Amino acid sequence: MTGTLSPSPGSIVSCRSRQWVVLPSENQDVIRLRPLSGNEDEIAGIYQKLLEKKLENIQLATFALPEVTSVQDHAAALLLMDAARLLLRSGAGPFRCLGRLSLRPRPYQLVPLLMALKLETVKLLVADDVGIGKTIEAGLIARELLDRGEVKRIAVLCPPHLCDQWQQELSEKFHIDAVVVRSGTASKLERNISNNDSVFSYYRHLIVSLDYAKAERRRASFITHCPDLVIVDEAHTCARPNKTTTSQQQRHQLITEIAQKQEQHLLLLTATPHSGIEESFLSLLGLLKPEFEHFNLNSLTDKQRDHLANHFVQRRRADVKLWLGNETPFPERESSEESYKLSKEYKELFDEVYDFARGLVKTTTADMSHAQRRGRYWSALALIRCVMSSPAAAIATLNRQVSKSGDRLLADLDEDLMSSYVHDPTEQEQAVDASPTVVIEQGQQSYKDADKRKLKAFVQAAEKLQGSKDQKLQSCIATVESLFKQEMNPIVWCRYIATANYVADALRQKLEKKGSQIRVIAITGELSEDERETRLEELKSYPQRALVATDCLSEGVNLQTHFSAVIHYDLPWNPNRLEQREGRIDRYGQTATKVKACLLYGRDNPVDGAVLDVLIRKAVQIHKSLGITVPVPMESTTVAEAVFKSLFERTTEVIQLSLFEFQEESAVDKVHKNWDKAVEREKTNRTRFAQRAIKPEQVEQELIDSDQILGNEQDVERFVLSACDRISCSLIKKKQGWLLSQPPDFLKLTLSGAEGSTLGDKSRLLSFTTPIPEGVEYVGRNHPLVEGLARYILEDALSHTTEPIAARCGFTTTNAVQKRTTLLLVRLRHLLDSSKRTIETRNTTSLLAEECAVIGFTGSPSSPSWLTQLEATLLLQQAKPVSDVGKAIKQVEISELLQRLEELQPDLEKFARERAEELLQSHRRVRAMTQEGRIRVTPQLPMDVLGIFILQPGRK
């Protein structure tokens, strides 16, 4: 074919001494070609002008039939079927994305995808509980929209410490290669751009730090070059703040401007959409639809509820644990409290600090400014919190001398800055774990000389308490040792950097003995993202490990594959933080059936007692009864004051600690009463937005069909074991998986970068099911090992007519059949034409879909009696040879069949049309749920006959 005529999508052509399949092309001047083997890395584009000038030549071609010389045994026939099926990427089913996934999604994870497909422009808030798999749900939506051609580019906006994790998840599980754009990477990325293009437009897929994108000098550029689909992780940090918080206001403004763009797809992810403040939650909903922000959630009309339910899904583990008869193995969480008693010296220090802090608040005078009074309040809080965290935190906080300008009066005080050092706010993009020195300094500006001398005395006392006189530390060491004996690896959560380093040093001295397999490492906010990743990878390599971390790791980071217990060394002053910490290990993918969460507290430590009584015990009880965390519906400052007031109510000398007026009602009672109301409201909302309208059985048939087209986990395992065995690279069965001692030579380069691994030609332990044990690598259908083996075997079968690894011809004597049966392995291509659901345009998009099928008949080609497709497939999978005949006889039998294959052509075309109709019905079932436009499925004839196999009845 020369000139300007273009071959139709799905047809086979010959070009550059090779056969190709023609793909749909958005550019009419370019013909897109893909090799027959399905290798997408070798897709080529032929410019039409080159054909006109006869610089390129394209000829229509036909797929070559098998040759009799390629006859092999029955196992080689099954190997060909598995290789061809596992190489399919453009699946023919209604969910296009399933062919490109390296994981098997849980059935419930398809619900947000179905919701997204219902929407002309995706505006969706996914607020599933911690550990259910929101990243997977978002990845499914992104991959599906990309494969349908509805979006060209995606961007993930997330906190900077989650950028690398998102990059890894998208690459490994969804085959989406994205670049990370944040302060540490932007300069290098910009150097790759030859012109003045923005980094936000040059790269196709982006993972951008929210901190980086929200900056005034970059926000406009990001919005201008914003990809079609934006995913916002930890979206609660982008809610409109209830107070003046510059950083959060910038984040909210950025997402608001993105949401306002026409036809902008927006996906918001958070496990804690409701911080407890109704206005903040409504501002998140307003990003989906402006009218949602004005809804009264306590009195929604049926119409409003239905409208909101189209854009909002929120499910507990109990909602999804048993879905479609498919149990998701979430671990059981066992919560406990471990108490200790302060040493005599530590108790004396606390009593002195307690009295000093009480005096700071009690002795405010009328001539002090509001900022000075608030400075003393925050200073008192910070002083108590750092001293009770650890001696090291007390020293780091109080050792700094007050500046000479310390007597300068404060005009204003940044309440949010103070809160970030003392409380545990979860609305911030990054947790602040530095010692609260700046807070103490604010209070010192109204200190007397005697007060400053007391601070120095506190430091001297704290220096003597490190080690054996610190019963909190000793109790932690004992708890870690106990967990190690139970074969559990703990994370020890600390509030401050100084405390984390102090605890890690003590654990190392106690546990890291010579010849020991135990490793203890601290990860805190003082480390860069790369340093944190390096330390974490080092720690994972030890069989017994303890991670001592601050809350820089408590939000969004997946730690479930290497840790199974948490110790709260410092009790959080925010129940949301408690759940975030425990959610790092208590999530889907945790292989331990039980995880442990230990609250470490001092029996005679009034601070711990107040926090436990006001917040923690109630939060734990709510989680046990509801299965979710319900935030306290009050400002963190108000809650902290209730804690602080509870602490000081032990003495009759103080009538009121807070600088704000409280009602006659107890401050703690007020917090609990509001919290109880929030629990009841949450029960109602979870029932409304669990998306029970999408029935499991509606998804079930599509998953079954998908497995038949693409292959399931058992098919992947059978293929890899058989393929490796036939190329003399057999896997060895071990207790926790299959050992691949050394990959075949043609895969070593591919595997050296697989799944973030640097194993190269080293051995690896593999598993074909999830969740996987620690130290084992999951192998799904798109894993480089599977893809590499399948591509090598199929290309070998198509190019070698003698002694191929997989058989395109076979003759098997078996007791599985009563009559001589012929099986054909065929590859079908379909053109899917669907109209976009939009009023302005009725754009029709064409997609090429492929599938493999086994069809079979008894009798002669002139009068075949056809088996069902399932019967034919099971015969190919299950037939066992009982005897054998000479190779020459096999070749004669197959040669005779090949010569008569033309007689089957009408039946083959009929099968292709029937299969297209079945696919159409499958698409229609899903589109009935998603309310999408019409679709047409057209078979592209003729089909490829990949293999011909004769089953001869054995002698009874």
Structure write-up:
The protein is an alpha/beta fold. 42% of the residues lie in helices and 17% in strands. The chain is built from 33 helices and 31 strands. Strands 6, 26, 27, 28, 29, 30 and 31 form a seven-stranded mixed sheet that branches. A seven-stranded parallel sheet has the order 9-10-8-11-12-7-13, with helices on both faces. Strand 27 (821-835) and strand 28 form a beta hairpin. It is elongated and about 105 Å long. The two termini are 55 Å apart. Residues 402-409, 650-664, 752-759 and 837-842 have low confidence and may be disordered.
Concise synopsis of the structure shown:
The chain is an alpha/beta fold and 956 residues long.
- The strand count comes to 31
Class derived from helix and strand content: alpha/beta
List the total number of helices: 33
Largest β sheet strand count, sense and barrel closure: 7 strands, mixed
Helix proportion range: 40-55%
Multimeric status of the protein: single chain
Ranges where pLDDT stays below 50 over 5 or more residues in a row are 402-409, 650-664, 752-759, 837-842
Task: Write the SSE topology.
Blueprint: E1 12-15, E2 18-23, E3 30-35, E4 44-47, H1 48-52, E5 59-60, E6 71-72, H2 74-86, H3 111-118, E7 123-126, H4 134-147, E8 154-158, H5 163-174, E9 179-181, H6 186-191, H7 199-202, E10 206-209, H8 210-214, H9 216-224, E11 229-232, H10 246-259, E12 265-269, H11 278-288, H12 302-309, E13 312-313, H13 317-320, E14 322-323, E15 326-327, E16 332-340, H14 344-362, H15 370-389, H16 391-398, H17 415-422, H18 437-444, H19 449-463, H20 471-485, E17 490-493, H21 497-511, E18 518-523, H22 529-540, E19 544-549, E20 565-568, H23 575-583, E21 594-602, H24 606-626, H25 636-648, H26 667-688, H27 696-710, H28 713-726, E22 732-733, E23 738-740, H29 745-751, E24 764-767, E25 777-778, H30 784-799, E26 809-814, E27 821-835, E28 844-858, E29 865-866, H31 869-878, E30 881-883, H32 887-899, H33 905-930, E31 935-953
Parallel strand pairs: 6-26, 7-12, 7-13, 8-10, 8-11, 9-10, 11-12, 16-21, 17-19, 17-20, 18-19, 20-21, 24-25, 26-31
Antiparallel strand pairs: 1-2, 1-5, 2-3, 3-4, 14-15, 22-23, 23-24, 26-30, 27-28, 27-31, 28-29
Helix pairs in contact: 2-28, 2-30, 3-4, 3-33, 4-5, 14-15, 14-19, 15-16, 15-17, 15-18, 16-19, 16-21, 20-21, 24-25, 27-33, 28-30, 29-30
